[in-house]
Design a protein that fits this description.
The chain is an alpha/beta fold and 376 residues long. The strands form three sheets. It has a five-stranded mixed β-sheet, sandwiched between helices. It folds into three domains: 136 residues, 3-Layer(aba) Sandwich (Rossmann fold); 125 residues, 3-Layer(aba) Sandwich (Rossmann fold); 82 residues, NadA-like (Rossmann fold). The structure holds 1,3-dihydroxyacetonephosphate (13P) and iron/sulfur cluster. Iron/sulfur cluster binds next to loops.
Length: 376
């Protein structure tokens, strides 16, 4: 790579040199690096990425679609513009000689952090002590949302369970109920509650397991009667949407359709016209006739992008709540981080590689493969 100002390639590739530069100066560099790397690299972009980053993605999608692409691509390097659990899943699903890069290692997910493997093991032990078992027909089936660590995915895989995303949660619940009578759902209580309720499980047959309380804070009789045990986790971005936001937007814009991500509270989802993963939200708006209006309850970068994209087509898309709703960890992937990761690759340096431990990989792959068998 040509290096200006007489600096060595190593100096030029240090992250600090990139972070000092404005966003717009990255565009040409990212595009040039992308061209130079050709088919060696595939760039995956989650829908919550900012415009300055997602415009370079080879593929955009929700977490299901991106994990499927990661499992199918032949590219040597998978650069994941998303968050840590997505890059981990890509590493689990990739072939042995492929390498996955997360441009900023600080791009985590606060919901995924709400379930630690040690807490999940303690929960399982406590449930087993109360007579619930996972194996051998009947009993408890563990199911984890994609938004969880690879260690938790492996934990559920080893115990006969699987992973789901917001786009195939219902299929995953049906699969789990075909294997047992009770589901432990990690870590998003809202997705779990919304999915189970839509399948006819009443709220009275769901309990919330609080990892910071003895025996989850749930009385044995309630556990016994429960069909779904929900982990006490949530997305701080989606939990901010409230039922009154739905009422307000309907009052202000008569005829507007409300579509929300199923990580929103049950009370919000009950008032919405439709629920969907990020990919599904986009499809619903794409398929709507001219003149349609939507209030969308999800991350603000996606909503703003949809607003701009569909305005010329005569469709109005606004956020469900004006105070906005930013995923600060998705936002961490900046054009500077992306340029840094790609230009380093040209120099032969793989920075910020995400590597899941081999012993964890096996069972998390089992859980992810079970998920991929369930259509979104
Ligand atoms: P999707 O799979 O719907 O894109 O959701 C991922 C996510 O993290 C939503 O907060
Ligand atoms: Fe995690 Fe919520 Fe951000 Fe999705 S929006 S990545 S669940 S913090």
């Amino acid at each position: 790579m040509a290096v200006d100002n007489g600096r060595s390639a190593a100096e030029a590739c240090s992250l600090e040199n990139y972070l000092a530069l404005p966003d717009h100066t990255m565009d040409d560099r990212i595009a040039a690096a992308r061209r130079k790397l050709g088919t060696d690299v595939v760039l995956l972009g989650h829908h919550y990425q900012r415009d300055e980053v997602i415009r370079f993605a080879d593929y955009t999608g929700d977490s299901y679609k991106l994990s499927r692409i990661a499992s199918e691509t032949e590219a040597k390097y998978i650069v994941f513009c998303g968050v840590h659990f997505m890059a981990e899943s890509a590493d689990v699903l990739a072939h042995g000689d492929q390498q996955v890069i997360l441009p900023d290692l600080n791009a985590g997910c606060s919901m995924a952090d709400m379930a630690e493997i040690g807490q999940v093991e303690d929960c399982w032990d406590a449930l087993e002590a109360q007579g619930f078992t996972s194996q051998g027909g009947g009993g408890l089936v563990p199911l984890t949302y994609m938004n969880s660590s690879a260690a938790i995915k492996a934990f559920v895989g080893e115990r006969g369970g699987l992973v789901c995303t917001s786009s195939n949660a219902r299929g995953a619940f049906e699969w789990a109920f075909s294997c047992g009578q009770k589901i432990l759902f990690l870590p998003d209580q809202h997705l779990g509650r919304n999915t189970a309720f839509a399948m006819g499980v009443p709220l009275s047959e769901m309990v919330v397991w609080d990892p910071y309380q003895i025996n989850g804070g749930v009385a044995p009789a309630r556990l016994q009667a429960a069909k779904v045990i929900l982990w006490k986790g949530h997305c701080s971005v989606h939990q901010r949407f409230l039922p009154e936001h739905v009422d307000n937007v309907r009052a202000k814009h008569p005829g507007i359709q409300v579509i929300v991500h199923p990580e929103c509270r049950w009370e919000v989802c009950q008032k919405a016209d439709a629920l969907g993963s990020t990919e599904r939200i986009i499809q619903v708006i794409e398929n709507a006739p001219e003149g349609s209006m939507f209030a969308v309850g999800t991350e603000i970068h996606l909503v703003n992008r949809l607003g701009k994209r569909f305005a010329p087509l005569g469709k109005k898309v606004i956020t469900l709540d004006d105070s906005g709703c930013l995923c600060t960890t998705m936002y961490r992937i900046s054009p500077q981080h992306l340029a840094w990761a790609l230009e380093n690759l040209i120099e032969g340096n793989v920075v910020n590689r995400i590597r899941v431990r081999e012993d964890v990989k096996h069972w998390s792959r089992v859980a992810l493969d079970r998920m991929l068998e369930i259509r979104s």
